[in-house]
Amino acid sequence: MSEDDERQQCPPSDLEFVSNKARNCNATGSGSGHPELQSVYLDQVLENVLENVLHFLTSKRDRNAASLVCKSWYRVEALTRSELFIGNCYAVSPARATARFARVRALHLKGKPRFADFNLMPPDWGAHFNPWALAMAKAYPWLEKVNLKRMSVTDDDLATLAELFLGFKELVLVCCDGFGTSGLAIFVNKCRQLKVLDLIESEVSDDESDWISCFPEGESHLESLIFDCVECHINFEALERLVARSPLLKKLRLNRYVSIGQLYHLMIRAPQLTHLGTGSFSPSEIAGQGDQEPDYVNAFAACKSLVCLSGFREIIPDYLPAIYIVCANLTSLNFSYANITAEQLKPIISKCHKLQVFWVLDSICDEGLQAVAATCKELRELRVFPVDAREDSDGPVSEVGLQAISEGCRKLQSILYFCQRMTNTAVIAMSKNCPDLVVFRLCIMGRHRADHVTGEPMDDGFGAIVMNCKKLTRLAVSGLLTDKAFDYIGRHGKLVRTLSVAFSGDSDMALKYVLEGCPQLQKLEIRDSPFGDAALRSGLHHYYSMRFLWMSSCRLTRHGCQEIARAMPRLVVEVIRSADEEEMDDAVEILYMYRSLVGPRTDTPKFVTIL
Amino acid sequence: MANVLGAEHDLNFKETELCLGLPGGAGGNEVDNSPKNTGKRGFSETVDLKLNLQAKETGMDLNKNLENGSREKPVSAKDPAKPPAKAQVVGWPPVRSYRKNVMANNKSSGEESEKASSAAFVKVSMDGAPYLRKVDLKMYKSYQELSDALAKMFSSFTMGNYGSQGMIDFMNESKLMDLLNSSDYVPTYEDKDGDWMLVGDVPWQMFVDSCKRLRIMKGSEAIGLAPRAMEKCKSRG
Question: How far is B172 from chain A (nearest CA, A)?
């Protein structure tokens, strides 16, 4: 499910102003009998019918729309919403959420803005799960699923989830932090119905707790166990026993402390796996020289249902041929931690005819990308990450690779591409060859870098993307860009919901173009671009429709942001300093603002000021 | 148990056989070499270090730990030993630090021998302290620098006199005994062979290459490591 499909739980202004007008959109009392009683009875019937009908409504957007019809529908929808999605944990409070929705089974909550991932936000900014955990415990003791992204979760929160929610089944933590293996130990031990524990790109502190051993004995309900981001040793014997007693296990992603020999033992116990993260994919250091190598090919051959392969954290490429046999069925392959060459990739990728999702390192060079383009005709999503993420590193991939992909993978919908060199021609080619593009994120790592063939800005390339890719909802721009690029975006990016801007633009006009031109804009994150208060003002008409605006190292001043705060009372305007800076002059280092139903939060750290 | 260090490095350090294992302390713990952004870590106030050490061996102590762990973790302040950012601009290119760290670690992947990691992170535990820390040994050039950094980290502890070259004066038997008899803290480390040694007994670079983790314990407890040191002193004496 793409992030861009999600909407904020409810548009704020409407909630307050749903009027108390007669909600009796049904029969008026007829002449006979007791008119009042009859109308009450009919109301009841209608609400029951509505309740049954609304149960079928699953999409957030549909539900939000239904809740606005009238007060009766609002009430019934609130009773029947079982999956609660909140895109910004500070837009609404736990109390309000639990007051409105009575029967929530699944909670999906997002916290920090994305730029926090790149150390642009001082730590301890907020997004604590704790108040939510406590509120849910009181309001929804039957809660089964929690999915958190960029939230701070403590060990105590994990304990709360396991102890206070008896039927708890699924926990997914994406880019979270604040907890450790001791929290995991408590959680897995007390959560007897656990089906899913997915830890994805989260920071887990090593409290030296053997959490794998803490899963309760007896047959487990585990269907998915993902812990590839956990940077500590695990008890392999306990893991092996766990896998052996989890007949429903379909997804298993190991961390890099699991050697290939250990992987073998797990695979032969779980041939039913559909998603496998292979761990280190290299032998452990203590394996003896003379030891018999297990038959890895056999292990992979046994996994007939494998469709998604990842891991390869410390890959020894000699072992790669073992996976040949599953390539034909793979729909998703993640090599983004495997520093392999084009030659090492080719024998694999040439067998991956069904591949739809491919994550890889730029170590495969343009040549490797050409090989991808030659075979992967079904490719929907491509991500090319840099081995050496520095501005001045060598760039093994360039416009050549991008062009090849655009020509070979016509069904491409989503691309993230890190490179050092790019041309407008290649970007324009992609815009024409891949009309289905929904997500286009190009990161030219050198700041302000122009088209390396023509020396021109990259305006035309990005312009072509917004013009030709009619379904585009997410865009990230880079390279040398003038205001013209943003003019294009404002004119043609009518469906764009998420826009990331860095080191771009010449003047306030650029931001104006975007704020005035993109009606669907929800998430705007900008850094190091020359936009000031005037530009900020040009978005006043739109900020209530957005989830957030982030601007760091731009040209904003405190009184400019204050103006916004005064003009828009339902906007929370946070001015954030780097943690060690003193309160300085009028210049604003980081602006983070978002709509909210509940006003300024009460848990701000010292370096945050809410205007 | 023969110290393999001397043989490996082809130096005349066969005499430096100061390797007594700490009872129950060794383990097969490999050092965690992945540099992390430790600025965001959280630690529980009630995580008892000793219990943690025992928990590796028996499951029972773990339960005790589970009952204790019920307080919110205060997030630690920025780790003073964080390596300097390689990129000139913070957060650019926009690659998550987790991924950056993994790549830095795996730079020489494809080679079967030791990875040429750009950092040498080792865990540091201090008896009585509620949480573990990590330091990058390659940030320091001498024992004195390490000592200063550790002192800042665990401010209630002082590392004994390191002498002019920053090494414990093993030549002086009585000084050594004083150090070990005092209630001052003494740093010890686990080397590649799993043996626990007193920090300062080998040249700095050799220490960096062989140290897998550090433990700061009371001098009196470290006495168990010292007999060999004493022998060495005597033999030179």
Answer: 38
pLDDT at residue B118, as a whole number: 55
pLDDT above 70 covers a percentage of chain A that reads 92
On whether the pTM is more than 0.80, the answer is no
pLDDT category, B38, cuts 50, 70, 90?
Answer: very low
In a domain, B68, yes or no: no
Per-position b or e across B156-195, b if 16+ CB within 10 A of its CB: ebebbebbeebbbbbeebebbbebbeeebbbbbbbbebbb
Q: List all residues 6 or more positions away from A356 whose beta carbon is below 8 Å from its beta carbon.
A: A331, A332, A378, A379, A380, A381
B39 inside domain: no
State which residue of chain B sits closest to A418, comparing Cα positions. B93
| ipTM entry | 0.84
pLDDT at B64: 39
CA distance linking residue A171 with residue A163, whole number of Å = 14
CATH of the domain at B154: 3.10.20.90
- pLDDT score at A263: 96
- Kindly determine whether residue B91 and residue A391, on different chains, have CB atoms separated by under 8 Å: no
pLDDT: which is higher, A93 or B180? A93
Tell me whether residues A156 and B99 touch, CB distance under 8 A: no
State the pairing for strand pair B133-136/B121-126. Answer: antiparallel
Domain assignment of residue B83, yes or no? no
* Least Cα separation, residue A361 to chain B (angstroms): 10
Best B31, B32, B40 member to test A by mutation, with max A CBs in 10 Å, is B40
Q: Mutate which of A205, A213, A344, A391 to disrupt the B interface (most B C-beta within 10 Å)? A: A205
Average pLDDT over residues A486-514: 97
Structural domain of B208:
121-221
Q: Is there a contact between B52 and A201 if contact means CB atoms under 8 Å apart?
A: no
Q: How many domains does chain B have?
A: 1
